[in-house]
Design a protein that fits this description.
about 400 residues; alpha+beta; ten-stranded mixed sheet; eight-stranded mixed sheet; 21 strands; about 30% helix; about 30% strand; globular
């Protein structure tokens, strides 16, 4: 099978592109080509996230996030067990920093229960049995279904499955540069004719949609997630994950502690407005878009209260002292010297409805003509991916 033509062309070999391809194969489709601009998998969000499988706690019950998260969690856990991939099934706790957060904790309990998640309200004594170092005011929420996987191991396994099916061709290092007519993709490695098209381009999904003249009122604004590590020999540890009560008006969950499947304890991520879709360093990854992103950030700063609160509080977390102070509020004991730099940095591209100047809080799937566009693939997209893929293939193919 060459790659100059395909029945179904998928742009992006992140978790969304791979799970949609897997579902297409499962339902009898073939002649699928996946193009990926990077030379390997997991270079961006799908390989840089914390690996947490969420349990549908935060999302309003009528949202796509809520509907897909829990089933996606179950499907991904079953897949990891079937393939023998690393999996930690040890839940997580959400703690309060002040008594003022207790009503939000109650709201999270209501949402989680409405979404089918198994959660319980626990007191400080019960919390100490689960996470000895976690600190809370009066009570905390324990989520039973939250789990942790190795994102890159999942991506690698899915790719192997797809290649072994004989129905999927991967073309790595291949960037989509435009669309010609109604069925020809122009790429850095030549033209590809297609009958159907899937936009799973992650941080570039708005650009790809733009080639089709679709969803033009939306723009992606990148946010940077910086992580740090708990020193391996710290005299206290984290058994699972410790999260703060978030501001549920924003799509970010706040700096938290997570034990990875490999035993490292990460602190983070931040949600700092970034100046490039791949702006992982301070200046690295800033590109020609940096000025237009800065201009858009400024417009949002002036017009959107949610964005303004993030923009005013998050950048300070670049400073180790501010980051430390934020994390230390979740635990009884944390020494500054026990928090060390981590190489992990993620970019979280947030979709904005530019007509309303509002952050889009849910996933968005737009189907038009021969194209299906997965927009706003932010957290919990990794968790939700297998369920989202089922819904997308069932509905549009």
């Amino acid at each position: 099978m060459g790659f100059d033509k395909a029945d179904i062309l998928i742009v992006g070999a992140g978790i969304i592109g791979l799970t949609i391809a897997r579902e297409l194969v499962r339902t009898g489709h073939g002649d699928i080509v996946i193009i990926e601009k990077e030379p390997e998998l997991g270079v961006h969000a799908s390989g840089r996230n914390s690996g947490v499988l969420h349990a549908g706690i935060y999302y309003s019950p009528d949202s796509m996030k809520a509907k897909s998260c829990l089933n996606g969690n179950f499907l991904m856990r079953a897949y990891c067990k079937e393939k023998g991939l690393p999996l930690l099934e040890n839940g997580k706790v959400i703690v309060t920093r002040t008594a003022a957060e207790l009503p939000v904790l109650d709201e999270l309990f209501r949402r989680a229960t409405a979404n089918g998640a198994k959660v319980e309200m626990i007191d400080e004594r019960q919390l100490a049995a689960i996470e000895p170092n976690a600190r809370t005011v009066e009570r905390a929420l324990f989520s039973h279904y939250t789990a942790v996987v190795d994102p890159k191991a999942v991506l690698k396994s899915l790719r192997k499955d797809l290649e072994e099916s004989g129905r999927v061709t991967f073309v790595m290092g291949c960037r989509l540069t435009g669309i010609k007519g109604s069925g020809v993709a122009v790429t850095s490695r030549g033209e590809i004719r297609f009958n159907r098209f899937v936009n799973a381009a992650g941080a570039y999904c708005d650009k790809v949609a733009g080639f089709f003249g679709v969803a033009e009122k939306y723009r992606l604004i990148p946010f940077k997630g910086v992580y740090r590590l708990l020193r391996k020999d710290a005299p206290y540890t984290v058994n699972s994950s410790i999260y703060p009560v978030p501001d549920i008006r924003n799509p970010f969950l706040g700096v938290h502690f997570t034990r990875s499947v490999h035993g490292d304890v990460y602190l983070g991520p931040t949600a700092i407005p970034a100046f490039g879709r791949e702006n992982y360093g301070i200046l690295g990854g800033m590109d020609a878009e940096a000025f237009s992103i800065a201009r858009e950030d400024l417009v949002l700063f002036m017009t959107n209260r949610q964005f303004r609160s993030v923009a005013l509080t998050e950048p300070a977390k670049y400073l180790p002292s501010v980051f430390f102070k934020d994390a230390a509020r979740l635990v009884k004991e944390l020494k500054r010297e026990d928090v060390v730099p981590a190489s992990k940095v993620g970019i979280r591209p947030q979709l904005v409805d530019w007509e309303k100047k509002e952050l889009v809080m849910d996933f968005l799937v737009v189907a038009e003509g021969e194209g299906v566009h997965v927009l706003n693939p932010i957290s919990p997209a990794f968790t939700s991916s297998m369920d989202l893929a089922q819904g997308i293939v069932e509905r549009y193919f």
